Every structure is written in structure tokens, then in C-alpha cells.
Protein 1
Amino acid sequence: MSPRREHRLVFLLTVAQRRLQRWMAAQRQNSSVTATQAGLLFILGQRDGVLMGEAGAALDLGPPGISGLVDRMTAANLIKRRADPDDGRAWRLWLTPAGREAIAQSKAGLVEVNARLTDGFTDAEIDVVARWLTTMQTRFPRGEDE
Amino acid sequence: MSPRREHRLVFLLTVAQRRLQRWMAAQRQNSSVTATQAGLLFILGQRDGVLMGEAGAALDLGPPGISGLVDRMTAANLIKRRADPDDGRAWRLWLTPAGREAIAQSKAGLVEVNARLTDGFTDAEIDVVARWLTTMQTRFPRGEDE
DNA sequence: CCTAGATAGTTCGCATGCGAAATAAATCGA
DNA sequence: TCGATTTATTTCGCATGCGAACTATCTAGG
């Protein structure tokens, strides 16, 4: 109703994400992997050997973002970077055995998060939330997208 | 339904927040202030002279977070830090005239963001979203809160 | 062919915020 | 009253990701 209430959505979203990241980091402790890292693992689990740019687009990361992510995950021996045989500029990403194991671990770790994320809300309500979050990508386009 | 769909909430939330931040930064260009900075301005607009810790709690920032935020906003001449007369450890935060002006600007800037955040959703749906975001703070507690 | 643009990644400097450890001031208990 | 603990804030090193500028490669057009 009042514009004041809607104002708060910006802050609510910011805070909610910070909470989630912090909570996941605390759970994670010395094992496993961040949410974004898990995202890349899941992508590679479905389509091993994607281009960095493709992965970045799927994760909504710009070039520096995906580049850094790949650096860190390569250093952690979760993925490997190999030159594309057909394009000297491009690199393709591949899971390492450790990365493949981390997928299973991450999926397990997400079970608790999922439970908390949906706790106290009906399926219909979660659908609304998911739709709202999904369409953020359309409603807040990047650069010259539209 | 399928656990797969709920898995995605983690990523949807992460991406949504990144989108929003990026979009706001792009709009912001060379003027105005980030969402979190606006949050602090609004707090001071209602209760000038809060303790740093209080502000941090309201913004869901830990000590290093609020400390850095205050540093940057002090450097930008939006707020002032003054020692608490009754407690030598504590600092209270006050708006500068520039900060007071920035509040109005920020509120204006949020109008467009609000419109986009709620665009295409009914009031009832936005209520669900707001409730979901709000209760994240309960469902993902910090440290030893509970 | 060869040059002009487009494209894939990287690097740099910055902003944000974290946890852990440090500092300084306040308070509590013997 | 004085040492031990608690509390407010800062500092440090790190992770994440951005925009801008750069590098290297590819692709078109002449």
C-alpha cells in the first residue's frame, strides 16, 4: 500500500542474501564450497566442457566474475581449464574427480538450506517467490539487454 | 514439487541480489548512494545520533561491515562520527547537511526501483515475497542467535 | 592476403562485507 | 579498589564481483 513498505524490498533482498551467504559460510566451515561455486559444479555436472563465457552467463557473472571464480576453483582442484581446440581465445571447463565428488557433497549440503528456505511457506507461496526472483533478471536487465 | 526446483532458490536469490545491485550501480552513475548507504541515511533520518552498533544491527552488518560503511560515508561527507559523551568506546552517527540532502535524492531514486521490484505482481504476492524475505532473518540466524 | 572490427579472457583498482584478532573503555565481583 | 570479563569499535587478510582497459585471437570486407 504505502510506498514505504515497498521501499523496504530493496533492503530486505540485500539483507536476505547476506544472511544466506553468511549462514552457508558458517555451515560450510572447512569443507565444501560456496553457493556460486556449487552452481558452476552443477552446470558442469550437466554439461562438462562448457565455455567460460557460457558458464558466466548461466551464473549471471560478468567476465571478471567468472574468471575469478574459475581461478579459485582451479586452485582448489575442483575444475580444470583446457584450451578450446577450435578457438584459441576460448577455454572450456571440466570437472576434476574432486569436483565430481564435491557435487554430491554440495547437493547434500543444500538439503538443509532448501528446507529452511521453504520452511513455513506453502508450495504456492514458494512459487510466487521463485517467480519473483526469476523475473528479476528481466526486470533489472544488464547493460544493453533491452 | 521436485527438490530440483527448490534447489534453485539459493541461486535465484544470489543472482537476484547481484542483478539489483548491478542495476542500481549502473543507474547511480556518478551521483547518489548505494542501497546500504541509503539504509543508513534513512535510519539517521529517523533517529539521528545512533550508535554504530545499533546501526549495524539495523542493517544486519557485523562490526567490520558497519565500520567500513561509516568510513566510506564519512569520507563522502554524508555522515559524521562523534564520540559518545557517556561511553568512551562508542561513537554516535549524525547526518551532515549533504547527508540530509542525499536522503531526499535516495528516496527519489528508489521510486523507479520500487516500481520494477513490484511490477507484474499483485499486492498479495508482494506481501508473500516481503514476508519470505523478512523471515529469512529468523530462518537463517546469525551465530548464536538461537 | 591484410587490416578493421568483434569476441573470449585476463588484469587492475575498487567496493563490500566477512571472521579473527587487537585495542580501549566500561563494568562486575571479590 | 583492582583485576577479570565484557563490550564497542578498528584493523587485517580474505573472498566476491564490478567496470574499464588490455591482450590475443578470430572473422569479414576489400
Protein 2
Amino acid sequence: MFKIDQRGSTPIYQQLVQQVKEAVLKGILQPGDKLPSVRELAVRLTMNPNTIQKSYQELERQRVIETLRGRGTFVSLHYKPSKGKEKMSVFEEDLRNLLVEAHYLGLDRAKIMQLVGRLLEELKIGEGDS
Amino acid sequence: MFKIDQRGSTPIYQQLVQQVKEAVLKGILQPGDKLPSVRELAVRLTMNPNTIQKSYQELERQRVIETLRGRGTFVSLHYKPSKGKEKMSVFEEDLRNLLVEAHYLGLDRAKIMQLVGRLLEELKIGEGDS
Amino acid sequence: MFKIDQRGSTPIYQQLVQQVKEAVLKGILQPGDKLPSVRELAVRLTMNPNTIQKSYQELERQRVIETLRGRGTFVSLHYKPSKGKEKMSVFEEDLRNLLVEAHYLGLDRAKIMQLVGRLLEELKIGEGDS
Amino acid sequence: MFKIDQRGSTPIYQQLVQQVKEAVLKGILQPGDKLPSVRELAVRLTMNPNTIQKSYQELERQRVIETLRGRGTFVSLHYKPSKGKEKMSVFEEDLRNLLVEAHYLGLDRAKIMQLVGRLLEELKIGEGDS
DNA sequence: GTGGTCTAGACCACA
DNA sequence: GTGGTCTAGACCACG
């Protein structure tokens, strides 16, 4: 279900955070669904349980998942977009940097817009009704 | 000319790499232009010359700038989009992750497309003839 | 395991790069093997950890080794000959220069071919199936 | 007549040394031929005269050329292969390193031998009768 | 003057 | 424990 790239610069725990969020977004994980336990996932992904733990903590901090003591961890029923304007400007900066990279990879405006469009479909990001 | 954020997680040598690439892209730095010397820039940005060095060497590896021995460093006359398909898939992965973030920030499809469009203008990324 | 010439004009970080590549080629280091940690090797070779770092990073850029975060650095499982035609012409140029030197050292065609043959044996370079 | 690569790691003055030696080897420059004056060559190659000077000094040190005061510089009538065994081992080391590179460029034994053979032809290196 | 290498010593994030 | 970043200060070859 999750694919981790051991090499590559992004930290493993962040990759997991990303993938859980993506799964929720796509509807693969529905609100209320139970996530695998830390230990189980550690075995399946052959990772250190501490790393899984760190991912879950980060996801909980972002209100994407919730932990019910003794029951397990579940996808939050209502997640709220946070919208801090600080986060927005960080996001915009990241996006700008990525677009610079795109140009140095030989992509022009049309190809970039097309790629963004395709990924939005794939991620099922549409109007704000989600 | 360059603005470095001393705190913040992204390494400052990478920030400089990004900003030089962005400046070249926008035309602020033209092919053939001389870059400030390592020492001079170190003084202006109040950072260590070694750090500037690291940035310049990375930029040279990426063929964005060239070093003429004893004369200084210059913006490359012809930089070639590299196009490695591996780099492309890394890029696509990064973009996907960023779009997931966008959604969690409350942006819908329309707002994302609009933002991308605006940034492309700002960076002067147009058709492939640039 | 590695022998570094502290004096002599070639940078010692490059010497280390060369020797690692040679060790991999000879099979002394097998794909998947763990390299000594930066700190440990620094102690063993009595050099600065930063210098070792530089070597390792260069080797990683060349895809000879891979870094697994927090676990260490390893010989790449699959390294691919890069084959850039630009690199090829640089190589041919270097080889030409070296052959000119050979002549000025008093070596004739036969002795040169013999020496090349001997070194190829020593390095275990054979048919393309290695 | 001489082609200098301003970028690239090998020092300009060494490139010139190399090319003069190569020209002598090929017979383009014959023993007794007059070399261009420092100033003239500096103009033709758009280089700093000091750099040309350095090249000529190095060539003279290697006994490839001779300077006749007030007359100019000439290709030596009899150059003697030096054969210092120290130089030989340096040469062998350089050759070994280059062969390692060859392998990482995807060349196998046959292709390397073929390339060496071609270059020897091109440089007119034959039996020891030169 | 330019960039390139090296050391010493410090701090940090990741697993 | 691992590698990655940064500073301070030094020395060198090149043009």
C-alpha cells in the first residue's frame, strides 16, 4: 500500500506522512478508517517502528488522523484546511522553486500546465466542495 | 540582489543555487555575465566563503555557470535542459506531493491553476523558445 | 585498505574517489557492501571528516555509492555506465595526452600496448559482462 | 594551430605544453623549427603573455624546446626520453586511473585496446626508432 | 585578483 | 550512531 524510497533526500517519515495524506485525498483511506498499528506497519515496510511513530505523530499534529487510546489510530472524520498565511507563503515559495526546476528540465508553460492538470485529476482535486 | 534566509530548514547554499537559477531564468543574469567573486559575495551576504563555493560548484555541475580559471565565474552561454527521465520522475513526484499539500491548505483546482499561472508569468516561463 | 598520498598535487579527496572506484571494479568492494562511516574512515586515514564527506558525495553523484539516511553509505547495487558523449571526448583527450607523455618517456608502441594490457588484467577489466 | 579550452580543469599553460609536444611528435613541428614569439602567440590565442611564458619555460625544462638569446625559441634538435623511474611510476598511476574511468564509461577491454591503437596511429607512435 | 583544497570544531536532523 | 551543513581560518595554483 505504501512505497518508501530508502535513498533519496526526503526523510522516510515524511514520505509516509505524504502518502497517507495522498491516500486520504484520493479516497483510498476514508474518514473513520483504521490505520495499521505502528508495529504492524513497521514489519510490512521493514522500517524502524520509531520512524512510523514519528510519522503518525506528525499526521496527528496536522489533524489528518486521530488516536483513540487503546483502540488504534483512525483517519479524522473532519479535517480542516489550516490556511495559515505563513504556510501559504512557504507553499508558494516551494512551488516557485519547483517551477524553476521544471524550466531547467526543458518543460515550457504548456507542458507544465498540462502536467499539473493531469496530476490534479489523478489526485481527485476538484472544486472546493471536498 | 540575493536574499538568504539564515534560519529556516533549507540549506543556505541551496537557497543561493535556487536564486541564481531564478535570476538567470528571469533574465536578470544574462549568459556571459560575470558573477560576484566568491569572497565578494561572502562579504555582501555575510556568510562564509566556503558556503558560496559550494553553491557555485553545484551550479557548475548543473551547467548553469562556468568557471574560467583565475578569471572568475560566468553564466553559461548555452545551458541545455538535461531531460534525464529519472530527473523527470523525481520532479513529477515532488510536484504531486506539493499538490497534495495545496489541497490540505484549502486550495481547490481553480485556485491552484491560477497560482501556477501567476508564477509562470512572474518567472517569465513561456513557450520553449526562451 | 586505502592509501592516500598526503603530498603530491592531486587532491586527496579525489584520490579516495579513485581508490573506491578501483576497489569496486576489482571486486574488493561488492555491490551492497557498507563503506566505513565518514568519521571512522577519517580516523583511520588521519584526515578531516569533511574531506571524506566530499569524497563520498562525489562518489554518490557518480552513482558509485548510495546513502541510506542514518544507516550509512553502501556500494550501489546497480551502477550504470553513464556514456555521455561529452565525457567520452574528454576521456579520449586525456588518453591522447597521456600517450604523448608515454612517448616522451621513451615508450614505443609495443611497450605501451603491453603496459595497457597488464593494467587491464590487474583491474580485472574484461568483456562488457562484468 | 593550437586550441585552448578556457574552461575545463587542466591549466591553460599545461594545455599549451601538451599541444606543442603533440605537434613535435606528429612532425608538424620539426626539430629546429622556430616557435612563435611569446607576444605573437599571446595575441593569436588571446591569452596572457605570462601564461605563454610559463608554458615555454616548462617546455624548456623538459628539453623539448631551446631558447637562443635574441634569436627566439626553437624545437630541440635532439630530445632525449628522460625515463626517470619516478616519472614512470607516476605515469603508470595516471594510466591506471584513466583505465578505471574507461570502465565506468562503459568501455570493455576490446574497445579500450582498439581506442589506444587508433590514438597511437594518430600520434604516429611506432617502434622505438623515433 | 580568482577559485580550489584542507583542517578544526561545532550543530543539526534522521533512524 | 549516521550523514549534512556551516563557520573560521589557512594555504595553494592559476592568470
